[in-house]
Design a protein that fits this description.
The structure holds two protein chains of two kinds. By secondary structure, chain A is of the alpha/beta class. In chain A, 32% of the residues lie in helices and 24% in strands. Chain B has a single domain, classed as Glutaredoxin. In chain B, helix 1 links the parallel strand 2 and strand 3. Classes of the chains: A alpha/beta, B alpha+beta.
Chain lengths: 170, 179
């Protein structure tokens, strides 16, 4: 398994196609907690796969104000067809050209197979990695780790807020 | 190791003795074809282990992928409130390719449940909170697809084939019943 970037590292910025004619830049989304879910490929044959699962859990992520981005090396048209077929309500980004460059910058690329790892990153509002996890390629990691991280991050933020406020008062 | 973090309680639908050495929890979706395939296997497993096994079913409807999964889960809950959860559970899996209101009402008729009350419960969403609570307990326990099994609280990462699931339960029995 690759060595993925760990907590405390600023998330490498990227600009990728989100639809055939639209680009998305990670840096533009600062101010919100972000979840980056790298996965090997669209069209995995099981129902309730990782992408379908996150699609169902999306309202729970959004309760924390977080947005989810899916990333794989599949092309834009492939993503478009997959998203329509699975009725996905979050963007899929195409790490297609140069292939896997973004996944590589996160340490989440499998050279031998030429696909992304099943790697998860939760970023704080400033674009710094708060939590990351790389699952064995055959094991869908579920969403419990993401939700735990979002909760811990929220607690820490409110603690920091309070500390700042009492600092001003003093 | 991924573990069940919402313990089995009175709110759950359980079959078999509460003090059975092994508890098998399934998170399932009535419209999921894999859950449909797993259903007769779970029945065989239960027959085989008898009183040594308690089986618990929790809802994990993947509503975006399966448009009837949520209403089917609510129908099972409605039957459960009338003491007929398992009858409805089996009937829903037995008619998986016909899920929808006409089927629910027909099954309610056969099981002698008040059909009008069922229709109202579905319209008013009476059982939405229970189904949602099951779903969220699964999310927090690391359910990563359906069906997802937990054996004595630990996620079973093998397949739901009879041999695989049976062997995993056997192993738990050996652990929990010292010779």
């Amino acid at each position: 398994m690759a060595q993925i970037l760990t907590a405390g590292t600023p998330a490498p910025d990227f600009t990728l196609h989100v639809t055939p004619d639209q680009l998305l830049t990670l840096g533009d989304l600062k101010g919100k907690p972000m979840i980056l879910a790298f996965y090997p490929a669209d069209w995995s044959p099981v129902c309730g796969d990782q992408v379908a699962l996150y699609n169902e859990i999306l309202p729970e992520f959004r309760k924390h104000g977080a947005e989810l981005l899916g990333l794989s090396v599949d092309g834009v048209w492939c993503h478009a067809a997959f998203a329509r077929d699975r009725r996905l309500h979050f963007p899929l980004l195409s790490d297609f050209e140069p292939k896997g460059a973004v996944a590589r910058s996160y340490g989440a690329y499998r050279e031998r197979e030429g696909v992304c790892e099943r790697a998860l990153f939760v970023l704080d509002r400033n674009g710094v990695i708060f939590w990351s996890y790389c699952s064995p390629i055959a094991v869908n990691p579920g969403a419990d780790g993401i939700l735990d991280a979002l909760e811990r991050m929220e607690k820490q933020e409110s603690k920091d807020d309070n500390a700042q406020r009492s600092g001003h008062a003093a | 190791m991924t573990t069940l973090n919402v313990p089995v309680t009175q709110r759950d639908h359980a079959k078999g003795p509460a003090n059975a050495p092994v508890t098998l929890v399934e998170y399932g979706d009535y419209e999921c074809p894999h859950c449909g395939l797993a259903h007769p296997i779970v029945k065989l497993i239960h027959q085989h282990f008898g009183q040594r096994l308690r089986f618990v079913f929790r809802h994990f409807p993947l509503g975006q992928a399966h448009p009837n999964a949520e209403s089917a889960a609510q129908t099972a809950e409605f039957a459960g409130a009338h003491g007929k959860f398992w009858e409805m559970h089996d009937s829903l899996y037995g008619n998986q390719d016909r899920l929808g209101l006409p089927l629910y009402l027909a099954l309610a008729g056969i099981l002698e449940l008040p059909e009008l009350e069922l229709r109202n419960a579905l319209v008013e969403g009476t059982y939405v909170p229970k189904v949602r609570a099951d779903f969220l307990s699964g999310v927090r326990s690391g359910v990563n697809g359906t069906p997802c099994f937990f054996i004595n609280g630990v996620r079973h990462d093998g397949t739901y084939a009879l041999e695989d699931l049976g062997a995993a339960i056997e192993q738990q029995l050996r652990v929990s019943v010292p010779i």
